[in-house]
Known about the structure:
Layout: H1 6-23, H2 35-51, H3 53-56, H4 64-72, E1 80-84, H5 90-98, E2 105-109, H6 112-121, E3 126-129, H7 135-138, E4 145-150, H8 159-172, E5 178-183, E6 199-207, E7 214-221
Parallel strand pairs: 1-2, 1-4, 2-3, 4-5
Antiparallel strand pairs: 5-7, 6-7
The structure holds S-adenosylmethionine.
Amino acid sequence: MIWLDHAMLARRLAGLTRRIAARTRPWTEYRPGHHLGRLRNVSLFVGEWLRGPGSVGAVCSSSRWLARELASHAPIGEGLVVELGAGTGIVTEALLERGISPGRLIVVERSEAFSGHLRRRFPGVTVICGDAAQLGTLLPQGLRIDALVSSLPLRSVPLTERHRIIEQWERTLDPDSALIQFTYDIRPQTRTCSCDQAFEVHDSRIVWANLPPARVLLARHAGRRQPPQ
Ligand SMILES: C[S@@+](CC[C@H](N)C(=O)[O-])C[C@H]1O[C@@H](n2cnc3c(N)ncnc32)[C@H](O)[C@@H]1O
């Protein structure tokens, strides 16, 4: 009888994807859309998913249509645009294509492998390897945030972690800052994250061309809660 140890299999596959990523050339050496550059991104993504499925929260990266829909809500202004959970950078790329200047864009990504990849791929963008649950301590103080673009897998992280992340959003965002988040729960929603009544949805649209289809929510502060005693 063949006995399959799932943890060992996952480790082996993660090792294989890392070797593929290491043997293909750095992403920047491929022109955008080149199949080897894409293979590198896919193997990096799958490798990170095998190491921490709950933390990555999706088996494959967002589609370019989802990325463009997310980016389309980011205002072209003077303040910062902060992207949370950038993975291999599909949304980062869409934000830059939208016209957000690299100097206004800050990316916060918890995985070291993704962060290293993002720094190489987007040299002009500030990439912070850190936890969105500590956002306030990671960002430069005193600068206005126009938009927070989140790909965080809020539905697959423990509730306490989700609350800590949303608490940071409440602290760091102004009442008129935009919170842009996608969710695989495509039912219509009036509040984000379905756990905390902090943010009110102003616009929402389903992107069908994504695996699985996702709903993009544009939300703003629904009024500040009392700070915890
Ligand atoms: C669903 S993937 C999205 C990746 C990419 N933005 C996309 O759309 O394809 C979620 C990303 O969030 C990152 N992440 C998860 N929890 C995080 C946290 N607490 N702080 C920062 N990044 C986190 C994961 O490492 C992963 O890269």
